[in-house]
Design goal:
heterodimer; A: 209 residues; mainly alpha; Four Helix Bundle (Hemerythrin (Met), subunit A); 6 helices; B: 621 residues; Cytochrome C Oxidase, Chain A; two-stranded antiparallel ribbon; 20 helices; 2 strands; globular; Ubiquinol_oxase_su3_dom (chain A); membrane (chain A)
């Protein structure tokens, strides 16, 4: 089966992302990569928990003074919704509806961008209002490293999805492009799952002291 | 007509290797680069032994000694042992499972170039203000106090080469899961493939903690972070945990493939099926699993408390059980076999008592109470050289002789090979056996000199003499390699005459597409089964058809070069204004080439059926 074969709605297979050997390899390889990423974030979480509220003296703000639920709640909702919209995109991918897939991916990107905007605002707020910076304390370093790593993943994911959308805008779906979209959406889900943990471990547990 | 048979100029060959995505050529690249770093690390070892030959020596200064010691360990683990193991994995594993290539040929090439540029970056420290000097473990309190850029070279160099290793691990996992030939079930995979599989899984889960640890160190040293600075609320023990959560599985990442190579050697040269195949597989997986449960046995004296120490102590001792299973299986494989004492077999036989001694001292060290006595003494140095040289280096040397014909189509000289073996074996035990007693007598490790009159003089001199034996052995090996290349006497597909697994069913070296027709695997030791039924080659599982191949690519080299440039920018940004721009340029090169790779289609090409048939008529080997 050739990767660039043309398809119609009727001939489009049920699992187009795993139809070719290349697709199968990409699918499995990416899942394994996400396993490694899980360990990476687990390590960052452990470091953060070890250094939470560790500051040089009592002039520094602690987690319970810094975080505000409304802002973080909005961010969480934005990212969770973007995960849902990427599911819609994959639904249309599986149904060979390229235009709708692009539309939902576009919405996913907008939600992701909004999330990043809020995160920039949030960091800026902590730095200027609370003097909670990367270098001010071990707590600060650990906080910005963990949340910043996640933010960098979001930014990379956005660049990736936008590149895919633009590159394949004219070409549409075939067995060569389907695994690319599918794997990018897996990445996006992973980022979302990590945020769920950040929301719980950093923000919710931070609020209660 | 086929292009690969044409004569090529030096430039064309070089370009071919810079852009290759063929696992067999990447294996040769790993072998050359890993071999080079092995010599560098060996030279550093010689400097260590010369400095310690006599008390009060001033061959090198205390500061330079620290640098040599650090670089010896770091180079040997990350830049010699790992890539040499990757060389054999790349050369052999795809052939053993009957695959035409690995799952991700492009990433395979990227993995190599990342490792290579990381290694070069690390070693440039010698010429740019001094090498790292905090030991290969680079504990945070030492590292943060280290002046100059030595530690930064360590952090950035290992970060780049570690990324390459992780990519390699994922690649091998997917290859083994998805690309086995028809009939090659999991429980028919050769042991070397199994150990590659488990090792790759260990790499996947052990390298991310190292990545994070190196990032934390990078942030602390170069970007004002406070992870390990107690004055700012930091905690230096975090480094120890993260380093050893990586570092202990790393030991098994090194030694499991060594076990795999020995399992192949024992079966081939005892001319007998490997004894207890399924228990070998089980023991391999169990060692891989337990390898993650024992990291704190490196930290018994850190002060984690008696409960933590007891748990990690027991878990560590448990690893002796699956390892013992393996040792007995190898012995039973030889039992009743028709043994041929070839060079690889000599290494395998010598490995058993040597490694067992390292294992016994390992169990001694696993007992936390005893460890308080042994900690940071030469006893520990003796222990880990017995497992890493007696296990890993013996396997690499044995594997080099075993697989040389498969990689290059010629045989290393057996007489010289045996001379190398005996010199190396004697030199090794002379160097390290006596270090057990030095340790028990109280000589601490990582000291640049010692005073006479403590009873250390004689033993240190003996140890140094042993090191020279190993150096001579290495020189004989190099002579052997040069002579073999100069003579260039080609051998057939199964030069040892007793090959059991699929790689020996192919010509040496195999054609670039490996298998013209994928083989049908009918059981464990697939080629042996065919031989026993009087067949000269494997039964094909498919008719001859077009073969799809990937195109060469220069992008992996450029991506790695970009990271190399970016690392310089990151390192010098505090004292030079060009630092940040260079960092940005380097990262732009990285992301730019990733972007290029992403948007430019590369579907590869097909070798047509007719060309494959033509090759047959040409009477090619």
């Amino acid at each position: 089966m050739k990767a660039d074969e043309k398809f119609t709605y009727e001939t489009w297979p049920a699992a187009p992302e795993k139809q070719t050997l290349d697709g199968k390899n990409k699918f499995l390889g990416f899942w394994l990569f996400l396993g490694g990423e899980t360990v990476l974030f687990a390590t960052l979480f452990a470091t953060y928990l070890a250094l939470k509220d560790r500051v040089p003296n009592s002039d520094h703000y602690l987690a319970k003074d810094l975080f505000e639920i409304p802002l973080v709640f909005v961010m969480t909702m934005l990212l969770l919704t973007s995960s849902l919209t990427s599911v819609y995109a994959m639904y249309h991918m599986k149904n060979f509806n390229f235009k709708k897939m692009q539309l939902w991916l576009g919405i996913t990107v907008l939600l992701g961008l909004a999330f990043l905007g809020f995160e920039v605002y949030e960091f800026n707020h902590y730095v200027h209002e609370y003097h909670h910076t990367f270098t001010s304390s071990a707590f600060g370093t650990a906080f910005y490293t963990l949340v910043g790593f996640h933010g960098a993943h979001v930014a990379f994911g956005l660049a990736w999805i936008i590149t895919l959308m633009v590159r394949n805008a004219k070409r549409g779906l075939d067995l060569y492009t389907a695994p690319k979209f599918y794997v990018a959406s897996l990445y996006w889900h992973f980022i979302d799952v990590v945020w769920v943990f950040i929301f719980t471990v950093v923000y919710l547990m931070g609020m209660v002291g | 007509m086929s292009t690969y048979a044409q004569k090529k100029g030096v430039g064309a060959v070089l370009w071919d290797y810079l852009t290759t995505v063929d696992h067999k050529k990447i294996a040769i690249l790993y072998l050359i680069a890993g071999g080079f770093f092995f010599l560098v690390g060996g030279l550093e070892a010689m400097f260590i032994r010369i400095q310690l030959a006599v008390p009060g020596n001033d061959f090198v200064s205390a500061g330079v000694y620290n640098e040599i010691l650090t670089m010896h360990g770091t180079t040997m683990i990350f830049l010699a042992a790992m890539p040499l193991i990757f060389a054999f994995m790349n050369a052999v594993m795809p052939l053993q499972i009957g695959a035409r290539d690995v799952a991700f040929p492009f990433l395979n090439s990227l993995g190599f170039w990342l490792f290579f540029f990381g290694g070069v970056f690390l070693n440039l420290s010698w010429f740019l203000g001094g090498a790292p000097d905090a030991g290969w473990t680079s504990y945070a309190s030492l590292s943060l106090a280290s002046e100059g850029h030595g530690i930064d070279f360590y952090v950035l160099g290992l970060q780049i080469s570690g990324a390459g290793t992780l990519i390699g691990g994922i690649n091998f996992l997917v290859t083994i899961i998805n690309m086995r030939a028809p009939g090659m079930t999991y429980m028919r995979m050769p042991l070397f493939t199994w150990t590659t599989f488990v090792t790759s899984a260990l790499i996947l889960f052990a390298f991310p903690p190292l990545t994070v640890a190196l990032f934390l160190m990078l942030f602390d040293r170069l970007f004002g972070g406070n992870f390990f600075n107690p004055d700012m609320g930091g905690n230096t023990i975090i480094w120890e945990h993260l380093f050893w959560i990586f570092g202990h599985p790393e030991v098994y990442i090194l030694v499991l493939p060594a076990f795999g190579i020995f399992s192949e050697i024992f079966a081939i040269f005892s001319r007998k099926r490997l004894f207890g195949y399924s228990s070998m597989v089980f023991a391999t997986v169990l060692i891989g699993f337990l390898g993650f449960m024992v990291w704190a046995h490196h930290m018994f004296t850190t002060g984690l408390g008696p409960i933590a120490n007891a748990i990690f102590s027991v878990a560590t001792m448990a690893i002796a059980v699956p390892t013992g299973i393996k040792i007995f299986n190898w012995l039973f494989t030889m039992w009743g076999g028709s043994i041929k004492f070839t060079t690889p077999m000599l290494y395998a036989i010598a490995f058993i008592p040597t490694f067992t001694m390292g294992g016994v001292t390992g169990v001694m060290l696993a007992s936390a109470a005893q460890d308080y006595q042994f900690h940071d003494s030469y006893f520990v140095v003796a222990h880990f050289h017995y497992v890493i040289v007696g296990g890993v280096v013996f396997a690499l040397l044995g594997g080099l002789h075993l697989y040389w014909p498969k990689m290059f189509g010629t045989m290393l000289n057996e007489a010289l090979g045996k001379i190398t073996f005996w010199l190396f074996l004697i030199g090794f035990h002379l160097t390290f056996f006596i270090q057990h007693f030095l340790g028990l007598m109280g000589m601490p490790r990582r000291i640049f000199t010692f005073n006479s009159g403590q009873g250390f003089d004689m033993a240190n001199m003996v140890s140094t003499v042993g090191a020279f034996f190993m150096a001579v052995a290495t020189i004989v090996l190099l002579i052997n390699i040069v002579m073999t290349i100069a003579k260039n006497e080609k051998v057939g597909g199964d030069p040892w005459g007793d090959g059991r697994t699929l790689e020996w069913a192919l010509p040496s070296p195999p054609p670039f597409y490996n298998f013209k027709q994928l083989p049908l695997v009918r059981g464990l030791d697939a080629f042996w089964i065919e031989k026993m039924e009087g067949n000269k080659e494997m039964t094909p599982a498919e008719p001859i058809g077009d073969i799809h191949m990937p195109n060469n690519s220069f992008v992996p080299f450029v991506i790695s070069l970009g990271l190399f440039i970016a690392a310089f920018g990151a390192m010098y940004h505090n004292e030079h204004s060009w630092g940040i721009p260079v960092l940005i340029i380097g990262m732009l090169v990285v992301f730019g080439s990733m972007f290029f790779r992403s948007v430019k289609d590369d579907h590869g090409y097909h070798i047509h059926k007719e060309e494959l048939m033509d090759d047959d008529k040409g009477g090619k080997a």
